[in-house]
Specification:
Helix content: 40-55%
Number of domains: 1
Shape: elongated
Largest sheet: 3 strands, antiparallel
Distance between the termini: 76 Å
Order of helices and strands: HHHEEEEE
Radius of gyration: 21 Å
Number of helices: 3
Structural class: alpha+beta
């Protein structure tokens, strides 16, 4: 009888550990998906060159176009609507919030060192670029792990060819 009770107890422990491992692996996948989305968004934003400034021989990022491109890439890569809320059927369940979106243009002195102690982020840009920090919440599959919330950071420079 005691062996049956021990087997049942071990099955419960094994299922708990298995659920923990699955949730942790899915959390890492969600973090990577968020990081890739931010990297793609800032890269797309950094490529929004102001053609009038370019005609004058200046490398200048159009801030309005950059913001629109970054939002579009985040929406497409994370399956969000225009307000940052997940679409029906998307993996995420909470709103993705853009905490920082900053365009650094040629009016700054390069190399430009950006520092944001609130989000523990520093980056040095060698030419005009874009910096973005988003807040993303992992939707736990099981309630085994504590809620996870990330501030995902990214930066990209204007590629001049």
């Amino acid at each position: 009888m005691y062996k049956l009770v021990l087997i049942m107890l071990m099955m419960v422990v094994w299922m708990y550990i298995h659920a923990l491992q699955i949730d942790e692996e899915m959390a890492m996948g969600a973090l990577f998906q968020g990081k890739h989305a931010v990297n793609r968004a800032v890269h797309a934003a950094a490529q929004q060159v102001d053609v009038r400034a370019l005609a004058d021989g200046r490398l200048h990022i159009d801030e309005r176009a950059a913001s629109a491109a970054a939002a579009r890439y985040l929406q497409n890569n994370l399956q969000l609507d225009a307000a940052g809320n997940p679409l029906p059927g998307a993996f995420l369940r909470n709103r993705v919030e853009v905490l920082v979106f900053k365009v650094i243009n040629e009016d700054e002195i390069f190399p430009y060192h950006y520092s944001n102690p609130a989000y523990n982020y520093e980056v040095t840009l060698m030419r005009p670029g874009v910096i973005m920090i988003i807040n993303m919440v992992y939707p736990r599959v099981f309630s085994v792990i504590a809620p996870i919330e990330w501030q995902i950071k990214g930066a990209a420079e204007l590629v001049a060819s």
